[in-house]
């Protein structure tokens, strides 16, 4: 069964809650059930509505997940502004760390429009 998408008013309510929490620097325990995202589309709509309410420019993208929400290269990476910070657990193995760095390199090459690095 495919979950039903949130209504525009539920998206707006979520964005309002997130915006106010950010402005007041208050932590949230959870969103009310009526405006909790059920799908990737819901989450993206809430994210865009929140950024619009805050007047924030988009400063980064999540790297590694396809638009359908699948992991493209076996790792999820996140950018914050112009930075990509890797914070692996202290128990990471050398081969696991190489896999993360290789996935990052491939993603950068893909976005930059060239193959095989520079």
Task: Kindly list the characteristics that best describe this protein.
118 residues, mainly alpha, 2 domains, 7% strand, 3 helices, three-stranded antiparallel beta sheet
Account of the protein in words:
By secondary structure, this protein is mainly α. The chain folds into two domains: 8-54, no CATH class; 62-112, no CATH class. Helices cover 43% and strands 7% of the residues. The chain is built from three helices and three strands; from the N terminus they run H-H-E-E-E-H. The chain has helices at 8-24, 40-54, 94-112; strands spanning 62-63, 77-80, 83-84. Strand 2 (77-80) and strand 3 (83-84) form a beta hairpin. Helix 1 (8-24) crosses helix 2 (40-54).
């Amino acid at each position: 069964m495919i979950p039903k998408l949130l209504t525009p008013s539920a998206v707006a309510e979520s964005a309002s809650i997130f915006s106010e929490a950010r402005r007041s620097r208050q932590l949230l325990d959870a969103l009310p059930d009526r405006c909790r995202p059920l799908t990737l589309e819901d989450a993206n709509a809430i994210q865009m509505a929140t950024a619009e309410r805050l007047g924030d420019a988009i400063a980064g993208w999540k790297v590694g997940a396809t638009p359908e929400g699948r992991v493209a290269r076996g790792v999820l990476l996140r950018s914050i502004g112009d930075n990509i910070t890797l914070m692996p657990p202290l128990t990471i193995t050398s081969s696991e760390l190489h896999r993360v760095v290789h996935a990052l390199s491939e993603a950068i090459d893909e976005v930059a429009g060239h193959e095989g690095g520079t």
